Amino acid sequence: MQHILIFGDQLNLEVFGAFNPDNTQFLMLESTTRGRTYGFHKQKLALVYAAMRHFRLELEQSGFRVHYRSCEAFSDGLKAHFDEFPRLELGLMQPSDFGMDSSLSEIVSQLGGTLEIFANPLWLSTNTDFDAWAQGKKEWRMEFFYRQMRKKTGWLMDGQDPKGGAWNFDADNRQVPKPGHQFPPKLEFTPDAITLEALDWVEGMFKAHPGSLEGFNWAVTRDQALQALTHFLEHRLALFGPFEDALVEGEDQLYHSLLSPAINIGLLSAREVCIAALEFAAKPENNVPLQSIEGFTRQILGWREFMHHVYRRQMPALRLENQLNASRALPDFYWTGKTKMRCISSAVTQVLATGHTHHIQRLMVLGNFALLAGISPQAINDWFLTLYVDAFDWVVTPNVIGMSQYANAGGFTSKPYIAGGAYISRMSNHCKTCAFNPKLTTGVTACPFSSLYWDFIDRHAAMFKNNPRMGIPISNWNKRDPSERTAILERNREVLALLEQNLL
Ligand SMILES: Cc1cc2nc3c(=O)[nH]c(=O)nc-3n(C[C@H](O)[C@H](O)[C@H](O)COP(=O)(O)OP(=O)(O)OC[C@H]3O[C@@H](n4cnc5c(N)ncnc54)[C@H](O)[C@@H]3O)c2cc1C
pTM of the predicted model, to two decimals? Predict the structure, then answer.
C-alpha cells in the first residue's frame, strides 16, 4: 500500500483521483504552525483549511482512505503517521514553494522513511520547456516565453502565426469604465456546515491575524470552483481585455476572474481554465473579442507559468534581492488603510475585507507606492504574502521582488513599473474623492505619488541612463527648470517626513 502526502495547495481531484484506492492511501496534515508562519489573513486560512476538509471528503467519497491529521507542526503530524506506519515510503507531488521538498525529505528520513517526489502535472509548461527556451538568453522576457507556449499549445494560433495577426492587444486594453457603468453580478456562495466549522475554528485559533472573515466568499470545493469559472466566462470574459487595467473605487472584481485562489490551491487546473475560456470564446454567439481571450490566456499561459519558472530557477537568491538598496520600513497604513491617499486606502480596506485586490491595485498602487518610497522589498514581499488569499511564496516572490519592486534590477522586466498621480487619475476614479491633487507636484495638496515618482527618477537616473524605456522620463526630468526640480524634491522631503510620522 503506498501513502501519498497531499499539501493544502495541491487539492486536485483529477491528479489524486487517478490513483487506485486498492493500493493508495492519502495523508493530509492540518498544521496550525504552518498557518501561523506569516500571520496569514484569516480568509486565506479559512480558504485553505475549509478546502482541505472538503477535499478529504471528496477523496473518501471516491473510495480512498485518508489519514487526516491535525497537528501543530508538519513534523508532529509526520511523526504520528510514521509511528503508525513505520519505514514508510511516502509519495509527494513536487511542491511549488522553495525548500519544501528538501526539508520534508530530511524530516521523513529522520523518522526512518523515505520521500519519493513525483512531477506536478498541473503546470502548463515543463521545466524542460522553460530551461531550453532560457538557455543562453541574457534576459528573460515573459512575452517571448509566452509566444513559444502559444506555439506549443496551438492556442489562438493560425498555423505558425498568432490569431488576428498580433501576439498581444495590450494597446486596446487600457479603457476605463464610464461613470455609472453597471458591472455584472457577483457570484455568491452559501457556506455549508464544513465551511462554517472551518470559519469558526480559524476565528478561534488565529484571532490576532489580520483581516475579517465576514462575507467570506471563496470557492472551497471543486463544485464551487467550477461555478466560479462558468460565472466568469458568462459574465466577465468578454470585457476582460478592455477594462483589464482599470481601477474603480469600491470595485474589486471589475472584469477579473477571481480564480487565482482556486487555481493556486488546485481546485481548478490552469489547463482546464484556459481550455474552458478558449472554447467559450470560440463560439461566435458569446461575443468574446480576441483582445479579451488573448489577454486572459496571456495571464495564465504567460505570466503564471513564467513566474513559476523564474522562482524555480532563481530561488533562494531572488527573495533577498535589493538592487535599489531600498530600506524604508513598511508604513502602518498598509495594515490599517488609514491614509489620505484614496487609492491606497481603498485597496488596503479591500484586502483587509476580502484578502484580494486585482492586479493593477497590486502593481500600480500598492507596489508602485512601495517602490517609489524606497520601502524594503523584503518587507513589502512579506506583506503581500501575509494579506492575500491567493498568496503562495512561488507566486508572490517573483511578482513582488521582480515585477513590482524591480529589486532584481530588471531580471525579467524591461523597466520598473512606476507611475505618478497622473496615471492613477487617468486609470481610476479614486482621485475625485482624494485629499490630494494628481495635477500638482508641489504644495501641501500635491499627490504624493507625483513627487515620489520624480524623486525616484532623480535618485536612480544613473542606473537607468542606458535603459531606452526610461529615456523619456529621465529627459523630461532633466528638461525641467532647476528651480522646479528643487521644489518637487523639497515637496518630496515633506511627503517622506509625513510618511515617517504616519501622517500621509
Ligand atoms: C505585487 C503583486 C503581487 C501578486 N501576488 C499574487 C499572489 O499572491 N498570488 C497570485 O496568484 N497572483 C499574484 N499576483 C498576480 C495577479 O495580480 C493575480 O494573479 C491576480 O490579480 C488574481 O486575480 P484574478 O484571479 O481575478 O486574476 P485575473 O486578472 O482574472 O487573471 C487570470 C489569472 O491569471 C493568473 N495571473 C495573472 N497575472 C499573474 C501573474 N503576474 N503571476 C501569476 N499569475 C498571474 C492568475 O492565475 C489569475 O487568476 C501578484 C501581482 C503583483 C503585481
Answer: 0.97
